[in-house]
Write a structure and sequence with these properties.
With about 70 residues, the chain is α/β, with parallel strands linked by helices. About 35% of the residues lie in helices and about 25% in strands.
């Protein structure tokens, strides 16, 4: 039986690559079934390495539903 998404975790960010990894790891460590939630990272045109940090995290967690916009 497939589960339907129940929660969207939206993380807005601007030049916070330094803190973003810890935030995303905390979300990934949740005990909730990863098929029931999605993570949407909204990058507000960061000029640091936020995009690289997000893409690396997405690659390291293929079991999570993550969108980077």
């Amino acid at each position: 039986m497939s589960r339907q998404l129940q929660v969207s975790v939206i993380i807005p960010t601007f030049n916070r690559a330094k803190y973003l990894g810890e935030c995303l790891e905390a979300v990934a460590a949740q005990t909730a079934d990863p098929t029931t939630y999605e993570v949407i990272i909204v990058d507000n045109n960061s000029t640091d390495n936020t995009q690289d940090a997000c893409l690396k995290f997405i690659q390291m967690h293929p079991n999570l539903h993550i969108r980077y916009v």
